[in-house]
Design brief:
By secondary structure, this protein is of the alpha+beta class. The chain is built from 12 helices and 12 strands. The strands form 5 sheets. The protein has a 3-stranded antiparallel beta sheet with strand order 3-2-7. The chain has a 3-stranded antiparallel beta sheet with strand order 4-5-6, with no helix packed on it. The protein has a two-stranded antiparallel ribbon with strand order 1-12. Strand 5 and strand 6 form a beta hairpin. Helix 3 crosses helix 11.
Length: 400
């Protein structure tokens, strides 16, 4: 017979507050002859313009389209939260979203006084590599920041501690780790490494175009030597090599019009012939680009679209709703962290214990908005058609 659970056991802190996912070691070790995925690798990946573009595709809709509703019975608290949440999203959300590429982001929270109330001002950006989370009894209480100038020595560096609510800590993909999460670039690491590693795609492409772009052609020369105008003796072989090298840098050639015993020119230059691009070379690069974006969670229809809207180039139905659902989760986690670490402190400081809730929406609701608009257009079209058939000549009824 199952033991009855004491209701008091359901209250209190979680029993798994100190739980850490198995196999997580801060970095992911060697696999299939590629380097470990670490913060250093992320720094290198951020030099790739395609990675930067992929991050723009992820963050852009979040920053531009996210909307929030504050539910609170106290109208003063509701207006206060609307002002502070709006300011946070306008001037600091992009800084917090560095967690997308690093797995986590840390910032110092700056406050200001507005109308006699302590309010949010802006986040001061801190590099993720310089910050380390500090926990107590399974709860995040702040983080340490290294490389802070020491005011006593004016030259040395020190490590300081920022506690909540002076510090703000945001985590991306916290299912992998509660405090350090996982970078969105982890799924793109394999195609990125295949593209940028020694002997990878970029080396192959560069080598082929280098060999074909700088091919100097062929120079036929007679055996023996040539005496120049200043009585210098030069081997014909060296002279031919010198002419080819000058031709490679944009020089011109002047050759004697003399014929050999076999009725062929003794000096003759044969310009290089253009070679066709190897079959599959460019397609190989395109497939790696697609794999890189897909590893970041971006459907190919988004970055391939050349017209307006999703899938305009492909003509296929795009999983737009699935893509925005993932972004909506990122919005929810960001506003949740900001609420727990900043806004609740401000509400308690200025108004006391007042219940409220910040409800995010605006990304996944696009499909419903379009569907509602299509239904409205259909109703208007039916009304117009009915009016024409009845011969009434009146305008169709538009529902506002």
């Amino acid at each position: 017979m199952a033991k009855e659970i004491d209701p008091n056991e359901l209250l209190g802190p979680p029993l798994t507050s100190d739980y850490m996912p198995s196999g997580y070691a801060g970095i992911f070790l060697f696999a299939r002859n590629r380097p470990p995925f670490s913060l250093t690798v992320i720094q290198e990946m951020l030099a790739d313009p395609r990675v930067i573009f992929g991050l723009w595709l992820l963050k852009g809709p979040i920053l531009a389209n996210a909307r929030f509703k504050v539910e609170c019975e106290d109208d003063d608290v509701r207006k206060f939260l609307i002002r502070n949440v709006t300011r946070f999203w306008r001037n600091s959300a992009a800084r917090s979203l560095k967690a997308v590429e690093w797995g986590y982001s840390a910032s110092e929270v700056m406050y200001r006084v507005v109308e006699g109330k302590m309010s949010f001002d802006i986040l001061k950006d801190l590099h993720s590599q310089d910050c380390k989370a500090v926990t107590k009894e399974g709860q995040l209480v702040g983080f340490t920041v290294r490389n802070v100038p020491d005011p006593t020595t004016k030259q040395g560096r020190q490590k300081i501690f920022l506690g909540m609510p002076k510090g703000f800590w945001h985590v991306h993909w916290r299912t992998h780790h509660p405090w350090y999460g996982l970078s969105r670039l982890y799924g793109a690491h394999i195609p990125w490494w295949e593209m940028w590693s020694d002997g990878g795609y970029r080396d192959i492409r560069r080598l082929w175009f280098h060999k074909n772009a700088f091919e100097g052609g062929t120079m036929y020369h007679p055996p023996g030597i040539t005496r120049t105008t200043d009585n210098t003796v030069v081997s014909n072989k060296d002279l031919a090599r010198e002419m080819i090298e000058k031709k490679r840098t944009g020089g011109t050639l002047t050759l004697p019009n003399t014929m050999g015993a076999d009725n062929l020119k003794t000096w003759e230059y044969v310009p290089p012939a253009s070679n066709e691009i190897p079959t599959g070379l460019l397609e190989y690069g395109s497939s790696l680009k697609e794999e890189l974006f897909e590893g970041m969670g971006i459907p190919p229809e988004i970055f391939e679209s050349s017209g307006s809207g999703f899938g305009a180039a492909s003509g296929r139905q795009v999983p737009e709703e699935a893509f925005f659902s993932v972004l909506q989760e990122m919005v929810q986690w960001l506003i949740s962290d900001a609420d727990q670490q900043i806004f609740r402190y401000l509400v308690k400081l200025n108004f006391g214990e007042v219940p409220y809730e910040i409800v995010p929406f605006g990304l996944t609701g696009k499909a419903e908005e379009r569907e509602s608009q299509l239904r409205e257009d259909a109703r208007n079209a039916e009304s117009a058609q009915a009016g024409i058939m009845a011969g009434s000549g009146s305008d169709p009824q538009v529902e506002e």
